[in-house]
Structures are given as structure tokens and as C-alpha cells.
Amino acid sequence: MDEEESLNRAIHEEVALFPYNANWPSMYEAERGRLLRLFPDDFLAIEHFGSTAVPGLSAKPIIDILAGVDSISRADELMEPLCHAKYTTSMEFNASLVGRRWLMQWAEGRRTHHLHLVVYGGQEWKRRLAFRDIHRANTELAEQYEQNKGLWAAEFKSDRGGYTAAKSDFVREALKRATT
């Protein structure tokens, strides 16, 4: 499979959940180290978040990385250099985002990493880490999330946007309950 075909397959990859893989944290650490070597002064912090960051939780096998920058304009400046460092992105998709930028890494027709650039310490930074942390601390909530994700993955197998949208109400409710 050539590079273009691999990218096209990764972009259109169906939503599929896999059982927790104990290698996910080391995959995150390897990519975090690579990013820090390539961009030693650009990120204020880098965190593993999303379902692959919650031990025991099934997930799409894509390592979600949260990279904190000092401003969205700095995130915009990093887009091209990150694309030269084995990431790709959709400028059209990023234009629709508020308060973050998104990039993807892929191999052999599958997504491997999603890199989310957000303002360090800002609302998006806090929200994404809070959602990870409440699932690490509350196994009952994590189990409920896993069950729902299975239903959403089946319903939106060929619609990543639909899958993500379906999760949004659960995310909002979980964060609301955690702060009350």
C-alpha cells in the first residue's frame, strides 16, 4: 500500500473499539518523547488523554495526545512543522474548531495518534484532563461509558463525526456530575 492509499484508508477508517491494550501508555510515552525532541521549546505540557489513557477501558486504538501551547496562534504556527514531522491534518476541519487544533498520525491505513493542540491551562485543557481523570477514579462511570461507546460504535460505524457527537452528551453530564 502506498502512502496516499494508506492516508486515505486512515481518514475513512471505520469506528471500531478494541479491548484495553497495556502497550498504549508506552506508545504515548514514545510519541511524547519524539515530540519533545523535535519541538523542545514549543509545548508547555503534554498529556495522554482519551480512552487509551484509562486502564481497562476499551477504545479506538488511537493514542490521544494533548499538547499545551501558550496561544491558539502558536498552535497555528506549529501546524506546518508538525506536518513535516509525520502528522497530517485537515485545514478545513481545523477552521471549524474553536480553542483547539487537531492533527493525525497514521500507519498502514490506520490512525495511530491524534494530537490536540490547546491552550495550556485553558478550558479545553482542563475539560479533557478532567474527563480522563474521572474515568480513572470512577470504575462504575468508566464501565457505563464503555457500554455506551459500544452502542455508539455500532450505530455510527461509518460515521466518525456521528460517533463523536453521540459521546458529547455523556461527556457533558459526566463533567457536570464530577463538579457538583
Radius of gyration: 16 Å
Give the oligomeric state: single chain
Low-confidence stretches: none
Indicate the CATH architecture: 2-Layer Sandwich
Total separate domains: 1
The tally of beta strands, per DSSP, is: 4
Main sheet characteristics: 4 strands, mixed
**CATH class category label:** Alpha Beta
What structural category characterises the helix and strand content?
alpha+beta
Shape: globular
The residue fraction in helices comes out at 40-55%
Look at the structure and name the CATH superfamily: Beta Polymerase, domain 2
Average pLDDT works out at 94
Your description of this structure?
- The protein has 7 helices and 4 strands; from the N terminus they run ααββααββααα.
- It has 180 residues and is α+β, with helices and mostly antiparallel strands.
- It has one domain: 2-Layer Sandwich (Beta Polymerase, domain 2).
- The protein has a 4-stranded mixed sheet, sandwiched between helices.
- The mean pLDDT is 94.
- One of its GO terms (molecular function) is transferase activity.
- This is GrpB-like predicted nucleotidyltransferase (UPF0157 family).
- Keywords: Transferase.
- InterPro entries: GrpB/CoaE, NT_sf.
